[in-house]
Amino acid sequence: MKSQILVVDDEPVARQSMTDILRLEGYSVNSVPNGQAAVEYVRTHPVELMIVDLRMPGMDGLEVVQVVNQISPETEVILLTAFGSTESAIQALRLRIHDYLLKPAPPANVINSVKKGLARREARLKARGGTATTDIDEGAPEFSLKDGTHIDLSRRQIRKKDQMIHLTPAEGRLLRVLVENPGRVYSHRELVLLVQGYDTSQREAPEILRPLVSRLRHKLETFPALSESIVSVRGTGYLYDSELSK
Q: Which residue in 126, 136, 235 sits closest to 176, CA to CA?
């Protein structure tokens, strides 16, 4: 059965383009022009993944996600924006958003994000039925590396045997973005937007991000398998290389 995807964007051209890209990939895609229509659609139709524009008249993207999280908590969400706004990226991560793409997003990036979002949804549904948790963020997964290092992104804890460290909210957001997307190179500007919550210039972004990365790496010194997996891409940004943590 085809995965059910909903595209929410008030710009007709962007909405149609996104719909066409995903239909060509074999997905069942519907689209709506505003937030209110998105909420009404999700109330009456199964939606596995929703791609929603951040800036729309009436209900904006984050307001839509807040409502959808209540009425259809299994729906994965990708947020699209051409703007950086204070708090928006931080709110997005708190709202269990799967990904946050800058418009215009290349088709390959959109398709890759959709595939990962649907895979994450399936994995979460398969894992359901275990013990109830009191995680800070139920959408944040846990990872265990082969050397015994355990990463709990919901509680922002890293532990191995009798060693444990706690990350700050910003450090936790940075690690989460990288670890949940192994192999993807994030630019300095994208990471500032995702982690700190505001847009900045490509020139200023490295200066803003560098102290945070430095503090995170310093904390992770006792967990070399994890620390060495956070790789600097010269002149571009950072990526998480999962091969280095094996």
A: 136
Q: What is the mean pLDDT of the chain?
A: 83
Residue 212 sits in which domain range?
142-245
- 123, 17: one domain: yes
* 183 within domain boundaries: yes
Q: How many domains does the chain have?
A: 2
Residue showing tokens 């936790």: 172
pLDDT band at 127 (very low <50, low <70, confident <90, very high): low
DSSP character string of 154-214: TTTEEEETTEEEE--HHHHHHHHHHHTSTTPPEEHHHHIIIIIS----TTTHHHHHHHHHH
Residue 94 located in a structural domain: yes
How many alpha carbons lie under 13 Å from residue 171 in its C-beta half-sphere?
21
- Flag whether 121 is in a domain: yes
The per-residue pLDDT for 90 is 54
Q: What is the pTM of this model?
A: 0.54
Q: Closest Cα to residue 29, out of 55, 50, 52?
A: 50
pLDDT at position 135, please? 33
Do 119 and 146 sit in the same domain of this protein?
no
